[in-house]
Design brief:
Blueprint lengths: L11 H14 L8 H7 L2 H4 L2 H13 L4 H12 L6 H13 L3 H14 L6 H14 L2 H14 L7 H13 L3 H11 L7 H13 L3 H13 L6 H13 L3 H13 L6 H13 L3 H13 L6 H13 L3 H13 L6 H14 L2 H13 L6 H13 L3 H13 L6 H13 L3 H13 L6 H13 L3 H15 L18
Pfam families: PPR (PF01535), PPR_2 (PF13041)
InterPro entries: PPR_rpt, TPR-like_helical_dom_sf
Organism: Cinnamomum micranthum f. kanehirae
Length: 484
């Protein structure tokens, strides 16, 4: 009888992780990335669009230098046609780092090869970054520029909606109103237009403004749909007006609109905000009665309700129930439980869940990394902060600048200058700017201990990096004359 051997063939997920780590770890811009891609990416990788999409997704979530991701995407173009998902992911990566010149180069290249990939979502990705980082006029100019480029198609209400969404996403409702006033005669609005604006007012947190606009919608002859009600229900839930949210649900059903899974999820979350766990559980049980199937979002909402009422035991039990039903935990699941354990349990509970997360090889998003790093460092456990840092690095991620600030400060205060220096050096080597706070803390400690050689090394690396990165924004460090 032959004994089955465990397969040594790497899984797709392990290969995605391996390639992502290679790209993240590659020194930038000291050495070219192309030879590494040519060596490491096999024909099986380059013939599978989903593999490239997965690697790009990991690079995006891991905050890896966007120019590396762009090089991967460009390299893949010589082997297979670009997929919509890989193009949009690359576009998100490049625009997030503020490299708008590279953004337009990418758009022009794709327009020449496969113009159908430049969709309304592509337009939204670009315009949202203009609305966030540039002026109102520059955002409108970007819209005009895209219209001039895409001469093969007539801009209509969908493109108009993308422009509106850019301002509404940034809660710039004055600007959104101005765009609506300027263009609504050229692009007759549809129900999606009105819902985008309604969503913008909801995100601004002004219930009165949202309701005033809702009534304006009605006066214009627009009939509310499920999306309209979901937006309004969410607004009331987040403000703690749970009774009003339930009233809207009843009004919705009276208008022959059936609540969706999103509606029920929002209401469960709203019950948690109102500290009404009993109602949250009743709504959760109502899902199966309505012939709907609970997903990770529904469970997350109920876990959040449990955490808000300090019922952490129920939250952990719900995580176990998700596993039993084959519903995977996502970042919201972990972030919600970490938040509750941090506030209501302490180090023991946080560490237990942290170990569970690591054992499952789950890679948390950066807001969760920052929250954990802050908790560890503020509670005298910089060793756990360093462990978390190394875990994320091993997964091919480059932790957010806030996490680096927290860790470097904690390590320096405990005399671990070498470890602090190596963490900051790792970020710069991988092509990311450190934030100024963490850098200045390390600079001060290195100067006081006479380790000027390390400062000079960082100076040289930073100056080389600044030749290829766009101008810094926010807290990112810019050091044209950092040292004498």
């Amino acid at each position: 009888m032959m004994i089955a051997r465990k397969s040594r063939i790497p899984t797709i997920s392990s290969e995605v992780e391996r390639i992502s780590k290679i790209i993240n770890d590659h020194p930038f811009p000291a050495n070219p990335l192309l030879p590494v891609l040519q060596q490491q990416l096999q024909p099986t990788h380059l013939s599978d669009p989903s593999f490239i999409e997965s690697v790009l997704g990991r690079l995006f979530s891991g905050h890896v230098n966007g120019l590396k991701a762009l090089e991967l995407f460009n390299f893949s173009l010589s082997h297979l046609p670009p997929s919509l998902k890989s193009f949009e992911m690359t576009l998100q990566i490049i625009t997030r780092m503020g490299h708008l010149d590279k953004t337009w180069e990418l758009i022009r290249e794709i327009h020449g090869k496969q113009p159908s990939l430049i969709t309304h979502k592509s337009l939204s990705i670009v315009l949202s970054k203009y609305a966030k980082f540039r002026s109102f006029e520059e955002t409108l100019e970007a819209f005009d520029r895209m219209e001039r480029l895409l001469v093969e198609r007539q801009f209509g209400v969908d493109e108009f909606n993308a422009l509106l969404r850019a301002f509404c996403t940034e809660r710039q409702m004055k600007e959104a109103r101005a765009v609506f006033s300027r263009f609504h005669s050229r692009f007759p609005p549809n129900s999606q237009t009105m819902n985008i604006l309604l969503l913008g007012f909801k995100e601004s947190g002004n219930l009165t403004a949202m309701e005033l606009f809702y009534h304006e919608m009605m006066r214009r002859g627009f009939k509310p749909n499920v999306i309209t009600y979901n937006i309004r229900i969410d607004a009331y839930c987040k403000k703690g007006c749970f009774a009003d949210a339930l009233r809207l649900k009843e009004e919705m059903e009276a208008g022959n609109l059936r609540p969706t899974l999103e509606t029920m999820t929002t209401l469960i979350h709203g019950a948690g905000v109102a500290r009404n766990l009993t109602c949250a559980r009743r709504l959760f049980d109502e899902i199966s009665v309505r012939k709907l199937e609970a997903d990770v979002g529904v469970y997350n909402a109920l876990i959040c309700s449990s955490v808000r009422t300090r019922d952490l035991k129920s939250g952990i039990q719900l995580m176990d129930e998700m596993e039993e039903k084959g519903i995977g935990h996502d970042n919201v699941t972990y972030h919600t439980m970490f938040w509750g354990l941090r506030n209501f349990d302490g180090m023991v509970g946080v560490c237990k869940l942290y170990r569970r997360m690591v054992e499952k090889n789950f890679v948390p998003k950066m807001r969760t990394v920052v929250m954990l790093m802050k908790f560890f460092c503020e509670n005298g456990r910089s060793d756990l902060g360093l462990e978390l840092w190394e875990y994320m690095m091993d997964k091919g991620c480059c932790p957010h600048g806030h996490a680096l600030n927290l860790l470097v400060t904690a390590l320096c205060c405990r005399g671990k200058l070498e470890e602090a220096y190596e963490c900051l050096k790792q970020v710069v080597e991988r092509g990311r700017r450190p934030y100024e706070v963490g850098f200045r803390v390390l600079e001060g400690f290195l100067e006081r201990t006479g380790k000027m050689d390390k400062l000079q090394n960082l100076d040289q690396m930073m100056k080389r990096l600044q030749t290829v990165l766009p101008p810094s924004r926010g807290h990112a460090l810019s050091l044209p004359d950092a040292f004498v």
